[in-house]
Design a protein that fits this description.
single chain, Rossmann fold, 7 strands, alpha/beta
Length: 278
């Protein structure tokens, strides 16, 4: 079953309607301490990234959304969300340290601090180890791990300028269980969990909380391309008997960014419907 999972792995009181576009119309959980916080989200143009941005907008945050090549859905979110005026869409190639420096200079000039950093950028280039090229391995490591290091490193001073800053890194259950055909992806996501724990230990005394989430099988465009027979078999292995939703990942990230999780440090929250029970 893990073979099937690995080959297609993709990466709480009042409620009120805040949306114009039904795509982003969902129930919300309100964390009043997040209002007016400054949030930076990498990998914002993907399915999970879009929901992360939408959920922080619900909390009345100002969100800087990073994308590399296609901002179309982010523009739709900005136009369709009642809080879209607080969404700032920025192009940034995280593989280029100079672009990250320019980004941080802009944030320093425009807002002067950063309250929440969500490291969500990532790619997959699947193949069995015997057939995997060095470029396929290194490009995934560079994008998923090294760019996370660079962005976190350069935003650290901005985070330290905040009162209760948080960092949330997006990993995967591929970091926890065998993921055949994804040795590059598994290695990068496993390293992110170790990175999270050690960074949390270093920064907690300075008031910066660092945690991670590890999504399991989440409904996405990638999963929609998979055979329904395969998807049904995977769903049968999940105790909740369904795939996860992008908003369920985003809700957890928002929670970890709020005062409601103020004593949670260096942890990985697995969001998989019970597929991986430890």
């Amino acid at each position: 079953m893990y073979l099937l999972v690995s080959l297609i792995a993709v990466h709480m009181q009042s409620r009120r309607p805040l949306f114009i576009n039904s795509r982003y119309k969902t129930d919300m959980f309100e964390y009043k301490d997040l209002a007016n916080k400054i949030v930076l989200v990498s990998g914002a143009s993907g399915d999970i990234g879009l929901e992360i941005c939408a959920k922080f907008l619900e909390q009345e945050c100002t969100v800087f959304a990073l994308y590399k090549s296609n901002p179309t859905q982010l523009k739709e979110l900005k136009e369709g969300h009642a809080g879209g005026v607080r969404l700032h869409i920025l192009q940034c190639d995280l593989a280029n340290p100079e672009e990250i420096t320019d980004l941080c200079d802009r944030l320093s000039s425009e807002v002067g601090r950063l309250d929440v950093l969500v490291n969500n950028a990532g790619i997959v280039k699947d193949n069995l180890f015997a057939s995997m090229s060095f470029d396929d391995f290194s490009s995934v490591i560079n994008t998923n791990l090294l760019s996370l290091f660079c962005l976190t490193k350069q935003t650290l001073m901005l985070l330290r300028g905040s009162e209760n800053p948080t960092i949330v890194n997006v990993a995967s259950i591929a970091a926890l269980v065998p993921s055949v055909g994804q040795i590059n992806y598994s290695a990068s996501k496993g390293a992110i969990l170790s990175f999270t724990r050690t960074l949390a230990a270093e920064l907690a005394p300075r008031g910066v909380r660092v945690n991670a989430v590890a999504p399991g099988m989440i409904e996405s465009k990638m999963v929609k391309k998979v055979s329904r027979t395969v998807v049904r078999e995977i769903i049968n292995s999940i105790p909740l008997k369904r795939l996860g939703k992008c908003e369920e990942v985003a809700n957890t990230i928002v929670y970890l960014s709020s005062a409601a999780s103020s004593y949670i440090v260096g942890q990985t929250i697995v969001i998989d419907g019970g597929m991986v029970m430890r």
